[in-house]
Amino acid sequence: MKIGIVGRPQVGKTTVFNILAQSNAEIGGYTNRGQTNLSIANIPDERLEQLAEIFESKKMTPATIDYVDVAGVTKSDIEQAELDSGTLAALRTVDALAHVVRLFEDETVPHVDGSVDAERDIESVSLEFALADLQIVEGRLTRLRKQYQSQKLPELQSEIRLLEVCQQTLEDGKPLRVLDLSANDEKLIRGYGFLTQKPLLLVCNISETQLDAADDILKDFRKFEAVAETAVIVLAAQLEMELSELDDADAEIFMEEMGLCESALERFIQISYRLLGLITFFTVNPTESRAWTLREGQTAVDAAGRVHTDFANAFIRSETINWADLVACGSYPEARSKGLLRAEGKTYQVQEGDVLLILANPTS
């Protein structure tokens, strides 16, 4: 999973990146248009830790998230309708966008537009991304129409019609996320990496003094979730960054004092998984306990392919159990004796928290 972190300058975007990526990228350098911060972060998962402990695994491998933090979208970008090409290239490869929106006031960090207005910033960045997508659509349509005049291929006509729908949607001021596309249509435009088609997480960045109003702020911004594949989270990035620098014991005390039930990292991951329709499954043995990411609805064969391509091709079945049941039993033999270890075939849809013991034919 790869998430691009975007927003206007001086909104706390790189601070959020540092929290999520457990990094220490320099903050405040929004004028550096070529700056892109990249990091791969492990996803904390107590379930994996418990499984590894039960099996005394020599190695524990968590699932990971790739974070991409790009330069802030400036007023000149919006006026000229032209994002830096490097920024666009970095964002077109991500699975989702996290748009950091500033709600905090700080005289030492003035907003680039002179005032804090979260809804204005959301509209500005959304417009810039829509214009970037529209430019791609119009350019591709021009080339396809010329090609169709000479070749008259049905597949060209299908793509032209689809891109015309995309064009009209963008011109109507709507993101491409609102389109209900068929699997074939998705495949046709997947390569373009349209920014407004990507799931969007609005990250409302508040100050410590706004914590008591966090629920009301979340309620106010829920209206943006009316658009498909959009979610909202509220966090105090500066406070969370200070929290991330503490050891576990001090962090727990700090969270209790501030009235925080869980860290921003935990909430961000939970919402991101839900937004992208992802689940986690596990493979465990004395050599390695590992967490894997899969899309909801994918099958045991898909899971086998994530573990190793050969396993998908030679798949026989998977012995499956919920992680909590396996921890309670303490071993596969005990789980099998209690009838909790199920044999599942190729069409089984993997569930959140499943532990899979994949059986494959080595001669296939």
Q: What attributes does this structure have?
A:
alpha/beta, flat, 364 residues, Ubiquitin-like (UB roll), 12 strands, six-stranded mixed β-sheet
Summarize the structure.
The chain has 364 residues and is an alpha/beta fold. It is 43% helix and 20% strand.
Average pLDDT number: 88
Overall CATH architecture of the largest domain:
3-Layer(aba) Sandwich
> What Rg is obtained from the alpha carbons, in whole angstroms?
23 Å
The third-level CATH topology of the largest domain is: Rossmann fold
Major β-sheet, in short? 6 strands, mixed
Q: How many β-strand runs?
A: 12
Q: Can you tell me the CATH superfamily of the largest domain?
A: P-loop containing nucleotide triphosphate hydrolases
Global shape:
flat
Strand order of the largest sheet: 2-4-1-5-6-7
- Residue stretches low in confidence (pLDDT < 50, at least 5 long) are none
Helix count, per DSSP? Answer: 15
Instruction: Report helical residue fraction.
Output: 40-55%
In terms of DSSP E residues, the strand content is 15-25%
How would you name the oligomeric state of the polypeptide chains in this document? single chain
By CATH reckoning, the class of the largest domain would read Alpha Beta
Helices and strands, in order, run as EHEHEEHHEHHHEHEHHHEEHHEHHEE
Q: Tally the structural domains.
A: 2
Structural class, from secondary structure content?
A: alpha/beta
* Alpha-carbon distance between the two ends: 31 Å
